[in-house]
Write a structure and sequence with these properties.
alpha/beta; 4-stranded parallel sheet; 5 helices; elongated
Length: 248
């Protein structure tokens, strides 16, 4: 009979509450100690949050050293994060989406991928669940990705700056360091003046283990980069001037 083990990053040690869950370090230590040398059936490793190519290689090297490749293996392919051009993050550790794909004319879906050293976990990761700010950032990366994949190619010679106008988010359940999926439907509100401003709304739902973990709506716009730079500078100067005048 096969043994199923969910593997998560060391950051999620609070989620390790049974023999069915291991952290990367905990699993590797057990392999090195020979815990899995004897026994019947396969040990099937499932990739939870915080497990990527680097971590899988570390575990695989321990498996190879014990000559257990016929008994212990990861199920499924590696989950690679989306690129910098899609989610606008400079560090791979901070990318929260993988395998962003279009399901229909206005429907998209992506896997949630949380690195163990994501910026939002470094100063606030307690208990078993992943904090809600990770979901907020995943939604932000989602509408950026949707624009990059579904709309930017309509205006290949234009450079857009994407901002969000509104967010309405409802939490339906805790998000745990397990595989999860986010789905969305995007509506075009105004796309007839790309030289001035593009406006969209996006409805999203985040599912884990078949249950709705979060849902809501966001509004976002695309501005020609040269126009937003002028507007942003003008507003910054106005804000500074107003503050100095009221402080005088």
């Amino acid at each position: 009979m096969s043994i199923h083990v969910m593997v998560v990053a060391d950051r999620f040690t609070g989620f390790v509450h049974s023999d069915e869950v291991r952290t990367i370090s905990g699993l590797t230590a057990e392999i090195n100690k020979g815990v899995f040398d004897d026994g019947d059936g396969e040990v099937l490793l499932h990739e939870g949050q915080g497990v990527g190519s680097f971590e899988r290689t570390y575990v695989q090297q321990a498996i190879d050293r014990r000559k257990l490749t016929d008994r212990i293996r990861f199920t499924g392919p590696e989950v690679a994060p989306e690129g910098r051009d899609v989610v606008h993050k400079h560090s791979e550790n901070n990318v929260l989406l993988a395998d962003l794909r279009q399901l229909g004319e206005a429907r998209y879906t992506a896997d949630i991928r949380v690195h163990g050293d994501n910026e939002l976990l470094l100063d606030h990761q307690t208990g078993e669940h992943v904090q809600g700010m990770v979901i907020v950032e995943a939604v932000r990366q989602l509408f950026l990705g949707v624009f990059e994949r579904g709309y930017r190619n309509r205006w290949p010679l234009s450079d857009f700056y994407i901002v969000w106008n509104s967010v309405n988010l409802t939490f339906g359940n805790f998000l745990f360091p397990l595989p999860a999926e986010i789905r969305c439907t995007v509506r075009e509100l105004s796309v007839d003046k790309p030289d001035r401003q593009l406006d969209f709304e996006l409805d999203f739902e985040l599912y884990q283990s078949g249950k709705l973990a979060a849902s809501g709506q966001v509004g976002f716009s695309g501005f020609p980069r040269q126009k937003i730079a002028v507007l942003e500078r003008r507003k910054a100067q106005k804000a500074l001037k107003g503050l100095l005048e009221t402080s005088a």
